[in-house]
Amino acid sequence: MWSYYNPVEIIFGENKFKEVHSALKNKSYIIITHPEEIFKKYSDELSSSSNPPLSIMTDVQPNPDYKDILELQNKFASINKTVDYILAIGGGSVTDTAKAIAAFRDKQEYLTDFVRNKKNPKVENPIKIIAVPTTSGTSSELTCWATIWDKEKNNKLSLAHKTLYAEKAIIDPSIMIDKPLGLTISTGLDALSHSMESIWNVNANPVSASHAIQASKLVLENLPLLAKDLKNIELRANIARACVHAGLAFSNTKTAIAHNLSYPITLNYGIQHGIACSFTLPIVTRSMIGIDKIAEERLQLIFNDNLENSSLKLSEFMRSLEVPLNLNEIKVPVQEWNNIVDDAFLGERGKNFIGNKDAFISSAKLMGLF
Questions:
Q1: Contact in structure between 271 and 348 (CB atoms under 8 Å)
Q2: Exposed, middle or buried: residue 91 (CB in 10 Å: 0-12, 13-18, 19+)?
Q3: What is the band of 63 on the pLDDT scale with cuts at 50, 70, 90?
Q4: Which domains does the chain have, with CATH numbers?
Q5: Which of 52, 237, 296, 349 would staple 260 via disulfide (CB 3.0–4.6 Å)?
Q6: What are the tens digits of pLDDT across the range 91-144?
Q7: Is the pTM of this model over 0.85?
Q8: 156 forms bridges with which residues in the sheet?
Q9: What is the band of 61 on the pLDDT scale with cuts at 50, 70, 90?
Q10: Where would I find the H helices in the chain?
Q11: pLDDT tens for residues 224-245?
Q12: Nearest Cα to 200, choosing from 147, 253, 160?
């Protein structure tokens, strides 16, 4: 028994950013984007059009924090017209921020109740979102949740609501062409992690698994090539397609143990999210041996090999991208790591994992994590 659902209209292709104009025709909207100069040309294009935005908000930081969103809510409160749409142009942090504003608008008490008082999110008639991702990794444009960090309280929350899917995702590989090497690798590995995490998952289904296998193969085949040829539009498009497949996979399953392990590593040690959630993938892959026949078969389809060899191939792939694979390299003390593992297996994403802690720990030793 299973079900699958994803309502986002996907518009994919080179130079498809122009579709934004028709999507927003006769609509009032704001833009949420990054502050860097490379994003300004897109907001400038819309500002000089016959239907300019009501506001352009650029105060978006990586891993959007509770206090950052509070400040944006103040800016939103100053808009004295009805906002029909939020246009999110940027990476996952931008789309996550757009979802928070779409959900809570200027109601700071709603955000505070969710983040600080641990109440269910109060989402009433959220603003519609059109998402234009500029990286290929988070797939936030295809999911109904957003990550909000509370760095002061050393906490990470997932805002999830079925009404927070974007109405449209306009995915244009040509606007991803200027992304630097480190970001390209990190976001590509995030897409790989989303894919594999949706396979060793209690919520996996045949449709999500099909997308996950396709996404994983595309990342494994194309990311090392793209790392050596960052201006190659065909490779950018292939990784963008991988990200679409990954989003269609984990939008129905959520993530699992590798992501739960990653959050304190990003929060406390500053490791980029895409690296933090992917460096354990070879370990988890090996730990799946003998755990679940269907999941094992699906993982084997990615690598065309048994899981022992697949885990080694995945380690070699990571090494080719200079990803750290042991605790010395990510500079996490062993005792702290043990605490992270204990907490991760007790968390929500840890409970999505169909494997077990003993097999994971055994695999970590065999794979040289220590």
A1: no
A2: buried
A3: confident
A4: 9-175 (3.40.50.1970), 177-366 (1.20.1090.10)
A5: 349
A6: 999 999 999 999 999 999 999 999 999 999 999 999 999 999 999 999 999 999
A7: yes
A8: 149
A9: confident
A10: 19-23, 37-47, 66-77, 92-104, 108-115, 181-197, 206-228, 233-250, 257-269, 273-276, 281-287, 293-303, 307-320, 327-330, 334-346, 348-352, 357-366
A11: 999 999 999 999 999 999 999 9
A12: 253
SS3 call for 132: strand
Extract the tokens encoding 273.
Answer: 């999210």
Residue 62: pLDDT band with limits 50, 70, 90: confident
Tokens representing residue 178 in the block: 């200027």
Retrieve residue 173's tokens: 């590989």
Q: What is the pLDDT of residues 252-275, one digit of tens each?
A: 999 999 999 999 999 999 999 999
Phi first, then psi: give them for residue 132, nearest 5 degrees: -120, 90
DSSP character string of 79-92:
--S---EEEEEESH
Q: CA-based angle 98:99:102, to the nearest 5?
A: 85
Q: Which is nearest to 188 in space by CA: 278, 301, 62?
A: 278
Nearest to 98 by CA among 78, 53, 128, 71: 128
Question: At CA 27, angle to CA 58 and CA 5, rounded to 5?
Answer: 80
> Could you tell me the pLDDT band of residue 319, with boundaries at 50, 70 and 90?
very high
258-259-264 Cα angle (round to 5)? 105
Give the length of the chain: 370
